[in-house]
Design goal:
The complex is a heterodimer of chains A (351) and B (284). With 351 residues, chain A is of the alpha+beta class. Helix content of chain A is 24%, strand content 34%. Chain A contains eight helices and 20 strands. In chain A, a hairpin with a 2-residue loop joins strand 4 and strand 5. The mean pLDDT of chain B is 85. With 284 residues, chain B is mainly α. Chain B is built from 14 helices and no strands. Chain B has a single domain, classed as MetI-like fold (Orthogonal Bundle). The longest helix of chain B is centred in the first third of the chain and has 32 residues. Classes of the chains: A alpha+beta (351), B mainly alpha (284). At the A-B interface, strand 6 and helix 2 of A face helix 9 and helix 10 of B.
């Protein structure tokens, strides 16, 4: 059982620094999801932990041991790749057993370990098949089997579900979650899909441009995003950001509308409003000129502009909007305890 | 596009059949000539159907050679063995060297890697015919004339095969290498356990091409084998052709020609399946 500690990691490719001074503590048995837009350095980070890339500075500590100089295999971790990276000429059994064979583990032990992993993953009947004879989901499971048989101190997942279709992705997501809860192996999971991140993570790390924006449980990240970036990245549709000014527990929006707020902050702020927190209310303070209405089924997305302003707003209203509101004004109210305030200079959360 | 009408069907087939006949007729004549007596060949018209001397002529060619005035000085079976050793030596040598050098160029970052690649690539412009004088000098100084090593080594490096394997290796996803590293694979183990099996069909396809290349070598063996016992079969046919006042024993010569043709044909037919797969298959 093991912890992964990353201390002041830095990584550059040539002159471009892609990871700037990053520190993370992954607790024993925890599943941490690293999420961020493409190019934010999340895969590089994972590959540094795996030992496939060298860190320029900082320490990688697995299980209390500094592993910066160790080969991937000596770190005793297993990795699941996005395109599975199965050996096409080996059977499922061969794929799972290959690492063990190199480690010179006895035949009986290999057999029993592969059998056990195959049972967990329901691959028992496929052991003799070649990867080309398997479906995407099955290949994914073999890739996981290859990780399990080694009894690693940690699993690393590099966007493992990106190559699957939407339905299978949901199913495999559940399976990974179940498996991880069952095995209690410390895991790092990289994805750009926020739903995956929210559903899988014990804690999640939101990364942007080589920096950590927020570390916290999915609920924390959703309800109390630490930075403006996190606020906009997590949640779908994305959070609305409006300009406003705070004074005496009141905010005035750019069109003069006023909202109550539980904060003593004074001065200019960015206001974050989640689309799903709006409610239709004839007396609501926010007037919206509707430009587009999207029906999703369970709810309705209303796109529009603030009255007398250029600021764009999206509201997600439960149920179906019956009247045709396009071109007309609607009034919305917003619960003041769900307002998110961000500093205009540092982009950090205020309330 | 694809013509489904009957006339089109017959026309294409007629065209193909005529083409095959054009190619096959000389081969057929050679075969017929190898099964009749010397007299039957010398008198016009040329026979078009096989005669009854098949076993005698082939036995003569294989085991007696020119000992009874048939033109060649050595039993052809020796030459077949010489050719086989040379062709197989060249083939396996080329495959080994090009696989290893492609492996080095694709998977290792060493200084002057690009330079090495281009140096190999430039040798495409230097086939043995171009460098034959210096090569002869080197081989002669190494005392390798009239030896199998001398026949094989100057022809053993192949830029084409290196290039083909390099292109193939570069299509193998990087994750495969990384997965192998995570599995604790050493580089040579990766080469042996993963790269070689994946390249199987490519190797088979190249084997066919390189074997035929080696078997058909003419200029180099002609130049460097002076000892009749070291001659290859392609040279042997040449040596049997009568010059000056000689008559030559044509059935034996023709039998030798057929014998010289057989091994490449066998190789092509037996490896046809892999050959086509290796040239077409890109599914990994």
């Amino acid at each position: 059982m093991s912890e992964i500690k990353l201390e002041n990691l830095k990584k550059s490719f040539g002159k471009t620094e892609v990871i700037h001074d990053l520190s993370i503590n992954v607790k024993d048995g925890e599943l941490i999801v690293i999420v961020g837009p493409s190019g934010c350095g999340k895969s590089t980070l994972l590959r540094m932990v795996a030992g496939l890339e060298d860190a320029n500075e900082g320490n990688i500590i697995i299980d209390g041991k500094k592993v910066n100089e160790l080969e991937p295999m000596e770190r005793n971790i297993a990795m699941v790749f996005q395109n599975y990276a199965l050996y096409p000429h080996m059977s499922v059994f061969g794929n799972m057993a290959y690492g063990l064979k190199i480690a010179k583990i006895s035949k009986d032990e290999i057999n029993s370990r592969v059998q056990k992993a195959a049972d967990i993953l329901e691959l028992g009947e496929l052991l003799e098949r070649k990867p080309s004879q398997l479906s995407g989901g099955q290949r994914q499971r073999v890739a996981m089997g290859r990780a399990i048989v080694r009894n690693p101190v940690a699993f690393l997942f590099d966007e493992p579900l990106s190559n699957l279709d939407a339905k299978l992705r949901v199913q495999m997501r559940l399976e990974i979650k179940k498996l991880q809860t069952q095995l209690k192996t410390t895991s790092l999971y990289v994805t750009h899909d926020q739903v995956e991140a929210m559903t899988l993570a014990d804690r999640m790390i939101v990364m942007n441009d080589g920096n950590v924006e927020h570390i916290g449980t999915p609920l924390e990240v959703y309800t109390k995003p630490r930075t403006l970036f996190t606020a906009q990245f997590i949640g779908s549709p994305a959070m609305n950001i409006l300009k406003g000014e705070c004074q005496k527990e009141q905010i005035s929006l750019s069109n003069g509308a006023k909202l109550k707020v539980n904060s003593n902050h004074t001065g200019k702020v960015n206001i974050g409003l989640r689309p799903e927190d709006f409610t239709l209310d004839e007396n609501g303070p926010i007037k919206l000129k509707v430009e587009l209405v999207e029906l999703i089924g369970a709810n309705t997305l209303i796109h529009g502009k603030l009255e007398n302003s250029d600021e764009v707003l999206v509201a997600s209203i439960a149920g179906v909007l019956n009247e045709n509101k396009i071109g007309k004004n609607i009034n919305l109210s917003f619960p003041n305890d769900k307002l998110h305030l961000f500093d205009t200079r540092t982009d950090l959360r205020i309330n | 596009m694809v013509e489904k009408k009957k006339t089109g069907y017959w026309l294409t087939h007629a065209g193909l059949i005529i083409g095959v006949m054009f190619i096959f007729f000389p081969v057929w004549l050679t075969f017929v000539a190898s099964t009749v007596t010397q007299e039957a060949i010398i008198q016009p018209p040329l026979p078009l159907l096989p005669g009854g001397e098949f076993f005698e002529n082939y036995a003569n060619a294989l085991f007696k050679g020119g000992k009874e005035g048939y033109g060649s000085n050595e039993p052809v079976i020796n030459m077949l063995i010489n050719s086989a050793i040379m062709a197989l030596g060249i083939t396996f040598g080329k495959l080994t060297i090009s696989l290893l050098s492609a492996f080095a160029i694709v998977y290792f970052r060493f200084p002057f890697r690009k330079t090495c690649f281009w140096l190999i690539f430039i040798t495409l412009m230097l086939p043995v015919e171009v460098r034959i004088v210096p090569t002869y000098e080197v081989v002669a100084n190494l005392n390798l004339l009239n030896s199998y090593s001398g026949l094989i080594f100057p022809l053993i490096a192949s830029a084409t095969a290196t290039f083909l394997f390099r292109q193939f290796f570069m299509t193998i996803p990087n994750e495969m290498v990384e997965a192998a590293r995570m599995d604790g694979c050493s580089p040579m183990r990766f080469f042996k356990d993963i790269l070689l099996p994946i390249s199987k069909t490519n190797i088979a396809a190249l084997f066919v091409i390189l074997f035929i290349y080696g078997w058909n070598q003419y200029l180099w063996p002609l130049l460097m084998t002076t000892d009749p016992a070291m001659k290859t079969i392609v040279i042997a046919i040449d040596g049997m052709i009568p010059t000056g006042d000689d008559f030559g024993h044509w059935p034996t010569i023709m039998a030798t020609a057929i014998l010289a043709m057989l091994p490449p044909v066998i190789v092509v037919i037996s490896m046809q399946k892999f050959f086509v797969k290796g040239l077409l298959e890109s599914d990994k």
